[in-house]
Design the sequence.
């Protein structure tokens, strides 16, 4: 008995639930629920109208079905669209006021806010379920004129910025899940870096999905004004659960002239058990636009969790000389499925993009890279380089590469390379011979395989991500 | 468009199973219509719009015999066996260099009418890849039926001439070519296309090749002068163990040409090579789609496609390597390289890997770029004009594909045709 | 042969040559030495007509305005540059390239084009004289050639095209002594009362093998000093720094 408890906690270290009471909207999706959400957030009228417009649009949209991983039909009327820890009504002014049980949860996750505050200089805007409950380092950021707050707060305090940029990258008329998010999003982060400011610390948010049967619909909006720089970290862990949970976030990035945004994600949500039962559906829309000249957006993702990951962090390179980058590691084990990649849309002149994708497939998993590189006829002297490598472990998994490459400009170059292969047995042997066991050896080799991407991560994440790469593949080779 | 199926159906009744097959397939076609951008594999080719804009008077040919062709169209100074098709219909065959008893050749129309023989090819009508295959099943009238016995190697290549004369104008021509190559046999097929007076028509052809154990089939399609025609060529290959299929495509004539080649490697140690060049100018639109299915161990496949796009032309290469769980030790390779010459030309590519076996070595690469100005400068500093430099670079670039041809005579033939084609191209001299 | 008057050249609005003057008479060998970034390669590129430079001033070649001619006409009229970094051109056969190039030049000079056989004989003699392995002729142009092989291929092209004015752009860089000997023998064998050379180099060592009539020191876009062969040796000792200070 005891033995099995230990095993299951090893299987998913972060699989626990805190029993904080929740406020919930009634089950189901309709105009009233949207009004309920808008009301509880004390939103202005225009925001509610915006949501309702999205909801009207949603009624005429169908779920996409071109993706490789298929999933059981989701009953959107059987989900809760809002749940919040009850005592968030009176928001804590400092960490001391935060519910001690919440603090305990974070400690279990290894993200002690206090410790981070002191040691790493990371400001954490922690989203527990759907409401932000604690934000640190606010003063330091305010000094520089940086706005870093829950988006619900920004809607009230900075309506002009929100009105101007919300939906400007992912319009409410976009695809099904993005539109769903626009209608029912609960909370998320808002970042504004003023002109010429270099954000002095990595901004970070830990998302957690907690309450049972709650779809998570975060909304993140980051604006880097002219000549500014920001690095944003998003990290996720979720508790163990049996029913599948839908997660459909929208992330919008806007970089103006000479601005740079670096967005890093480590996603380690519950992947389901060994037989493919349970796990998160991670259907996220992430899109950035390099609106200004010489701007740059860089996406880095380490995707190891979720039952199904389905996302394409993209860059629209609108400004001349702008740069888009996408670095990705996607690890799928057991019955996990991932269909992920990026879109690089070159519109401006002298635009450059780089795509490095590393897919690792083990167990019965299926891992797909899907990407689009489009150079429009006006994007003179543009460049793209793409490298997609897949590693297969075991004979029951799949690895796929589906790039779309479209060049309409004679002065632009596109280079694409892809490989798929088995883990190198001679390297394994060499490591074994030097005393490493099979799993250590695999961890080492896979980390080497992913090195180019891991290097892109900020220090705080790199260490965690490296461990995660090893843990995710445990038990994949007999 | 007037695809008068009922009339066709009445005129071509066989009283056998085929009649119903035709009706069922025409129904299928009507439900879907011509392929459009909405279909994934036609994403880069909107055939429906293209035909609507260019061949609005398209009709099914009547039963009148129109076998007129010209001798000057035949290849000179090149010893070969030949089959002549005119407007898609079987006219004649000569196998002067071969032992006739090893070869069974029939016009397909004879097979279609004969109940016993029809059973041999009946399964070909099960293929429902897209609406054009349905249309082909419904309207096929003739083509080639060729069986080669075991242990027979051809002495000379077989040239299949596809001529289209004036009576093909505005017609939709559906035919099939069936070739079965026995164990340990060997055959080189060269397909040449020629249309009279630059007439406009739509040719929808399906090729079925069955290659038995240890056999070698090489196919060379030379498409260099079908100015105004619209063509869809589908090739289905079944490769059995230890066999070799080698395909070379010279995709350069025709307003529109889509070649779709599906290779099924149905035994271990089979190999399949699909290489080719696409050289387009004016407003030509060509697409090549290859699909190699690895189903058994130790098979090998490779594709090299080199494309040059001039003027307002558009080219596409979609290539997929599929590796089933059982196909361990697969070696799959694919490379597409394209040069875009003009600001109005486009190249799209979709190289795809779908892999379910772990012990494999698969890779693909795709580059599209403009011509290297440094190279032009280097050549010009040696006295070559810009035009000469361009031509030399194009030839050098495309030659890499021609170099993959393993038959020396055919390589030199294709090489000559390529140079001729390049010399015909008018380069806009847009000096800076 | 060549008269350069007050030549200025800039790239991306950065001025590199700043009023450069030089006169080369038939049969003369001139060497231009100078530190990195002094404008040596720019001079070679401007003379051969590479795109991308804004050029002012006058260059007369055989009495005609050189700057107006397209790249290939300069070459056809006998201007040859041995590239510092010869380009690798995949798919283009070396032999075929040489033949096309030679016949284009011959046509312009009013000579009969060579057929394959004559050309083969010619190239066989030339490769033998230069101790170049004939095998490179059947390879793709400069593809996979070693540094030495590329430079030797440049010299081979030079001897075949028989130019009037040869520019050697840092031909000695990256060469071992043996390759250097072959290169300079090639150059020396072409020395002629009607043929001139402009040798661009950073180091003096090539000038041990090819004796120049004049040595010019290029500093910051113009000639700082002119002398005879000894100047090169002097430079080797004192370095460019001193010269820059003087200039």
Sequence:
């Amino acid at each position: 008995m005891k033995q099995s408890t230990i095993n299951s906690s090893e299987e998913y270290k972060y699989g626990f639930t805190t029993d904080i009471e929740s406020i919930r909207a009634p089950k189901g999706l309709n105009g009233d629920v949207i009004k309920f959400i808008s009301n509880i957030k004390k939103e202005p009228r225009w925001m509610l109208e915006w949501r309702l417009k999205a909801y009207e649009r949603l009624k005429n949209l169908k779920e996409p079905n071109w993706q490789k991983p298929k999933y059981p039909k989701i009953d959107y009327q059987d989900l809760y669209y809002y749940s919040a820890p009850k005592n968030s009504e009176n928001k804590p002014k400092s960490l001391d006021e935060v519910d001690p049980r919440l603090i305990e949860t974070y400690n279990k996750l290894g993200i002690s806010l206090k410790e981070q505050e002191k040691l790493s200089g990371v400001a954490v805007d922690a989203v527990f379920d759907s409401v932000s409950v604690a934000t640190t380092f606010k003063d330091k950021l305010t000094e520089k004129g940086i706005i870093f707050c829950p988006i619900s707060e920004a809607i009230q305090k900075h309506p002009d910025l929100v009105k101007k940029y919300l939906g400007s990258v992912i319009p409410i008329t976009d695809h099904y899940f993005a539109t769903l998010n626009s209608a029912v999003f609960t909370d998320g982060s808002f970042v504004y870096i003023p002109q010429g400011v270099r954000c002095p610390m990595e901004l970070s948010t830990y998302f957690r999905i907690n309450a049972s049967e709650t779809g998570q619909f975060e909304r993140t909006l980051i604006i880097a004004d002219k000549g500014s720089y920001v690095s944003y970290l998003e990290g996720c862990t979720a508790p163990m659960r049996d029913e599948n949970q839908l997660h459909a976030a929208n992330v919008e990035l806007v970089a103006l002239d000479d601005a740079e945004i670096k967005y890093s994600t480590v996603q380690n949500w519950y992947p389901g058990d060994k037989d493919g039962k349970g796990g998160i559906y991670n259907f996220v829309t992430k899109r950035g636009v390099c609106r200004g000249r010489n701007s740059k957006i860089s996406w880095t993702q380490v995707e190891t969790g979720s039952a199904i990951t389905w996302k394409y962090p993209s860059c629209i390179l609108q400004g001349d000389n702008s740069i888009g980058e996408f670095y990705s590691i996607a690890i799928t084990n057991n019955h996990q499925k991932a269909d992920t990649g990026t879109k690089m849309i070159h519109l401006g002149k002298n635009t450059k993009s780089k795509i490095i994708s590393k897919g690792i497939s083990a167990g019965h998993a299926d891992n797909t890279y899907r990407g689009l590189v489009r150079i429009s006829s006006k994007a003179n002297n543009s460049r793209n380089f793409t490298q997609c490598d897949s590693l297969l472990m075991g004979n029951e998994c799949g690895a796929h590469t589906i790039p779309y490459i479209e060049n309409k400009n004679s002065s632009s170059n596109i280079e694409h390379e892809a490989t798929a292969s088995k883990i190198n047995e001679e390297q394994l042997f060499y490591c074994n011979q030097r005393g490493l066991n099979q799993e250590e050896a695999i961890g080492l080799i896979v980390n080497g395989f992913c090195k180019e991407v891991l290097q892109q991560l900020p220090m705080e994440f790199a260490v965690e991500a490296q461990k995660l790469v090893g843990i995710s593949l445990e038990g994949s080779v007999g | 468009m007037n695809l008068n199926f009922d009339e066709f159906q009445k005129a071509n009744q066989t009283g056998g199973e085929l009649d119903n097959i035709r009706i069922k397939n025409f129904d299928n076609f009507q439900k879907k219509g011509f392929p459009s951008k909405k279909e994934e594999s036609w994403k880069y080719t909107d055939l429906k719009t293209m035909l609507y804009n260019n061949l609005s008077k398209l009709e099914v040919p009547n039963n009148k015999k129109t076998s007129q062709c010209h001798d000057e169209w035949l290849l000179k100074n090149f010893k070969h066996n030949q089959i002549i098709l005119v407007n898609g219909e079987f006219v004649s065959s000569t196998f002067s260099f071969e032992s006739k008893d090893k070869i069974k050749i029939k016009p397909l129309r004879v097979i279609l009418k004969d109940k016993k023989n029809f059973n041999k090819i009946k399964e070909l009508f099960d293929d429902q890849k897209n609406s054009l295959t349905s249309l082909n099943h419904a309207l096929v009238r003739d083509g080639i039926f060729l069986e080669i016995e075991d242990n027979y190697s051809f002495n000379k290549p077989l040239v299949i001439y596809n001529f289209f004369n004036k009576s093909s104008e505005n017609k939709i021509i559906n035919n099939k070519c069936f070739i079965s190559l026995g164990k340990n046999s060997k055959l080189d097929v060269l397909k040449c296309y020629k249309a009279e007076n630059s007439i406009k028509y739509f040719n929808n052809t399906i090729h079925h090749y069955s290659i038995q154990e240890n056999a070698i089939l090489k196919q060379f399609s030379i498409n260099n002068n079908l100015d105004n025609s619209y063509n869809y060529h589908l090739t289905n290959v079944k490769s059995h163990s230890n066999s070799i299929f080698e395909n070379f495509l010279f995709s350069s004539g025709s307003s529109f040409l889509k070649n779709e080649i599906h290779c099924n490697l149905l035994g271990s140690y089979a190999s399949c090579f699909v290489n080719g060049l696409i050289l387009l100018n004016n407003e030509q639109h060509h697409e090549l789609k290859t699909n190699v299915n690895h189903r058994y161990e130790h098979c090998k496949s490779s594709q090299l496609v080199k494309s040059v796009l001039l003027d307002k032309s558009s080219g596409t290469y979609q290539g997929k390597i599929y590796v089933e769980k059982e196909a361990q030790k697969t070696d799959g390779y694919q490379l597409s390289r394209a040069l875009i010459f003009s600001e109005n030309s486009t190249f799209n590519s979709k190289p795809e890997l779908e892999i379910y076996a772990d012990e494999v070595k698969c890779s693909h690469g795709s580059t599209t770029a403009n011509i290297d100005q440094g190279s032009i400068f280097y050549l010009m500093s040696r006295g070559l004009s810009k035009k000469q430099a361009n031509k030399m670079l194009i030839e050098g670039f495309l030659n890499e594909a021609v170099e993959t041809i393993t038959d020396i005579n055919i390589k030199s033939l294709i090489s000559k045709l390529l140079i001729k084609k390049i010399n015909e191209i008018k380069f806009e001299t847009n000096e800076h | 042969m060549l008269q350069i008057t007050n030549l200025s050249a800039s790239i991306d609005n950065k001025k590199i040559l700043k009023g450069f003057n030089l006169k080369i008479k038939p049969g003369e060998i001139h060497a231009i030495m100078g530190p990195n970034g002094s404008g040596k390669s720019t001079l070679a590129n401007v003379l051969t007509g590479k795109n991308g430079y804004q050029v002012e001033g006058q260059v007369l070649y055989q009495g005609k305005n050189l700057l107006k001619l397209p790249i290939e006409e300069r070459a056809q009229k006998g201007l040859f540059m041995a590239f510092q970094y010869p380009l690798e051109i995949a798919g283009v056969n070396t032999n075929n390239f040489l033949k096309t190039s030679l016949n284009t030049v011959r046509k312009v000079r009013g000579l009969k084009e060579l057929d394959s056989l004559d050309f083969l004989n010619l190239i066989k003699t030339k490769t033998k004289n230069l101790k170049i392995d004939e095998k490179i002729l059947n390879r793709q142009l400069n593809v996979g050639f070693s540094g030495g092989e590329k430079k030797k291929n440049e010299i081979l092209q030079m001897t075949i095209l028989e130019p009037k004015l040869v520019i050697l752009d840092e031909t000695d860089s990256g060469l071992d002594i043996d390759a250097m000997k072959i290169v300079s023998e090639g150059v020396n064998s072409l020395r002629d009362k009607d043929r001139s050379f402009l040798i661009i180099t950073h180091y003096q060592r090539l000038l041990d093998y090819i004796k120049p009539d004049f040595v010019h020191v290029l500093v910051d876009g113009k000639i700082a000093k002119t002398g005879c062969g000894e100047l090169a040796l002097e430079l080797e000792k004192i370095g460019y720094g001193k010269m820059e200070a003087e200039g």
